[in-house]
Queue: 4 jobs
Job 1
Amino acid sequence: MYTSLKKVIEKTSEDIRSKGLWKTEREIQSPQGAEIIVNGKRVINFCANNYLGMANNPAVVEAAKQALDTYGYGLSSVRFICGTQEQHRKLERTLASFVKMDDVILYSSCFDANAGLFETLLGEEDAIISDELNHASIIDGVRLCKAQRYRYLHHDMADLEAKLKESQAQRIRLIVTDGVFSMDGEVAKLKEICDLADTYGTVVMVDDSHATGVLGAHGHGSLEETGTEGRVDIITSTFGKAFGGASGGFTAARQEIVDLLRQRSRPYLFSNSLAPMIVGTTQYILDHADTLDGARKRLHKHTLTFRTAMNAAGFATRGESHPIVPIMLGDAKIAATMAADILAEGIYVIGFWYPVVPQGKARIRVQISAAHTDEHVQKAINAFTKIGKKHGII
Ligand SMILES: Cc1ncc(COP(=O)(O)O)c(C=O)c1O
């Protein structure tokens, strides 16, 4: 019986290989950080979502050990059976006040938060209006929901408005967007989106995974950055990036939304509780959120230095001020070869090409961290300049 499945798998695998899209994972022999050991060689890491340098911060590691000692390793349960510790509710309340929402519900990941959101709230008489570049977890969450689907052109407010007009017959309409687009480092036009939502009487949901802890004067995210706090109805986000980088996610929303999610959201009901150590460590990070201002300032200073130097050198970048800095190269082979050459210079970056990004828009995505030093950033600029010249890009 298995022979037929094996044939199908081999055909699909060959298809992926023939397009040059087969991914190989490089093994890291060190904790995550600004400098890591890759294949036995020390390199400077410019491809992690470790925005605030929390992933291997000694105080964070210590907080994790303490949480382990106090609350144990595992819970062996989902939340509603015997998997809710006092610290889960405490973290939910702390997060709710951090993102200025009524309440928060924790998930094992933001992927799960997005997977469990839409089908809980919406039915076939409703509509979801989604930016075409939204994250895969939003796309999958939307697929699970029976609501009518509308996709608007990325960042295109005229097209969003057209879709709002088209969907006027639907009972509830939910505009869905990433707060920051992960492949482009662009912040969503939340002010314009909220204005359109007001005009057309729709609800707004933002996935703030790349903005929580990163954007806004206090790190509250893309809503704080764009002055739209209080205008968005639902936020989802992750602890897997700025807030420690381990795992875990959440949905923050109005009280009745969170209450219903606790009753009906399938990844919450049917998947294990967020591990005690992650809950305790995230609580520690949030309790010290006001001490993160220095890290956030360093992050943005490095980002400005890098973006300015790269643009001056003649590279085409995307986005304006986010620490995700895509270096646009167009051709997949150039992106792959340049990333390998830059790694040989001791700078770890990754090329992205179709289908992860649109056809012909291959790029190297650089991600800056507060853990980087001025010297790290300069070395990255030097390596890009040297390899960019070698390949005739600049
Ligand atoms: C915009 C966005 N949403 C959701 C996720 C998924 O987050 P998690 O790793 O917590 O599942 C990611 C991670 O890559 C992301 O970039």
Job 2
Amino acid sequence: MQGGVGLTAYLVNESRLRRPDLAEDGLAGAWIPEDGRRDVRELWQEFADAVYPHDDLVVSLRGRVIADTLAEALRAAPGTVLVVCGAGFSSYPWLLDFPVAVEVDLPEMAEAKRRRAAELTAAGTLPERDVRHLGADLAVPAERAAVAARVREIAAGRPVAYVAEGLVFYLPQDEARAVVALGAEFGTSTVTAVSYWPASASDNRVLERQRAWFRSRSVPEEASHLTRAEVAALLGGSPDDLGPEDLQRRYLGAVAVPESELVPEYVAVSWTRDTAGPGAAR
Ligand SMILES: C[S@@+](CC[C@H](N)C(=O)[O-])C[C@H]1O[C@@H](n2cnc3c(N)ncnc32)[C@H](O)[C@@H]1O
């Protein structure tokens, strides 16, 4: 298992695996080989005991609204190219039949994902998909620019659906803003879905406990928080901006756990209005 910020990819993978009803990620269980799953399960339990026991709820809800958004984008424009930054062990390119997907993560994680995806495809666990795994540090402006250039080349004018899930709070403030706005660099963005922690929740008690746990695990504990207004401005409009209570209402019919007891993760979804697709009709 990778240390540093890469550790978080294992945690959230386990969170989705624990709520198949909510996450609808039937491939979550495949990413970690059987001989490593026990360690990940133990890590998750340690995190649950020290920080909060509801990461499965928060992560599965955010993943579900993103999966639903991507399915809508694909229905509206079947030629859509998928771009996922901070992809970790998420499964979107294999759950939904995009003609091509680009997954970006730190080089070591991108390589681990590429290798595991190849193994799982050879075993018939994953369907054949055209997925390009790019290693890049998205906190570095030149590396972001290189990613954007590569996406423009791959998309070649096709619509792009852009996801940055569980990522931007790990970046310094200015770099977080730039990653939120990165879809604008792709030339043909139709929808952006970004998760973030709002500035209004920077004193959240769960985040306070998470910082202490991250410290004990050598995961950088500094986090960036963005105001809801600045996320809207960066996305160039008025996104659907849903917090964990909104998402519980949408997918569970009621709020089972209040935001004060959760990582306050919001998902902003913004459709580009001047392109074909659902955004045009809104
Ligand atoms: C919490 S995980 C989320 C993974 C995935 N999006 C999901 O929801 O399952 C955060 C991911 O962001 C990646 N990441 C963190 N900092 C990064 C950076 N500077 N550049 C690229 N990726 C980064 C980590 O390696 C990790 O895979």
Job 3
Amino acid sequence: MKINRTVSISFVVLAILSISAHLVRAADDTAALYKTKCASCHAADGSGNTPVGKNLKIPDLTSADVQKKSDQVLADITEKGKGKMPPTKGITSEQAKQLVAHIRTLKK
Ligand code: HEC
């Protein structure tokens, strides 16, 4: 059944395409989420080089001090806040993890 095979191959190709499109979109979404929810304090590059950041003495997210902390610790802070950082409203634990993955990409 030649046609059947072509059909099933097309399905596999489609599935792969939609999964990779999804992954690309997820990364874009996370970068956008970081911009709207975090950059006002932490700066787009994570340096904390913003008026609020300087005011609150925000740690540089790209620094070794922050980067050496575990994903779990950073995700918890991202979700629940810490000290002068308020809890982040409207994100899921999954999104907190993705934001941590984004912070990892900012590492120097
Ligand atoms: C209102 C300003 C503000 C916003 C918005 C904010 N943060 Fe923070 N963040 C802080 C401050 C202040 C600290 C330092 C807290 C402390 O140690 O007392 C901090 C600390 C952190 C830390 C821990 C650094 C460390 O090593 O202790 C992480 C990780 C972090 N923020 C991630 C995020 C992410 C991701 C977002 C967006 C979802 C975000 N923050 C939004 C102010 C903010």
Job 4
Amino acid sequence: MRKKILLHTCCAPCAIHPLAVLRDLGFHVTAYFYNPNIHPYLEFKKRLDALIFYCDANDLPLIIDGHYQMADFLRAVVFKEQIRCTICQYLRINKTQEYAKSNGFDLFTTSLLYSRYQNHNEIRNQCEVLSKQSEVAFYYKDFREGWQDGIDASLALGLYRQPYCGCIFSEQERYDKTFKSKRDKPHVENDRSSNE
Ligand code: SF4
């Protein structure tokens, strides 16, 4: 019996390499879209539509938490902007492990581990802590090793590739380099888009 793994998926391009790795290992993979950080709404729709297209083309089951929960995200990070990425990652990973637990998955993991611009070790630690609490196993892999393969494949497929990480703050930083340089950075690597 193949083990069922829930792959939290931030966007289609970041899912390509993790999916290949997990399928090579024999897992039955299901993608899970929960990303309340994405701003504005049309950007959220663009990323989701690209993921739906990719999943259809690759016979990948997809569970969508499609309610646009930007207000929840903003309530969680307001007055805590300096640690917003930690909160953002936690919200998404926590929801993923909750869904995995409630729906009989053997393991969970996240495409956030593919990004070169996120705080990789922090994401790994959050997953490990939440896994212990929920008793759903976490599958760790440094998916960054497939960084260029994922980019090449997404370009070949013509997938939408977002130019900033996702939240309203990162959208400002995309254009406003002064804002970017003035901000105190808890982690330099958090400061970039996953696909820019
Ligand atoms: S920069 Fe990216 S990881 Fe950080 S809060 Fe914004 S969307 Fe989340």
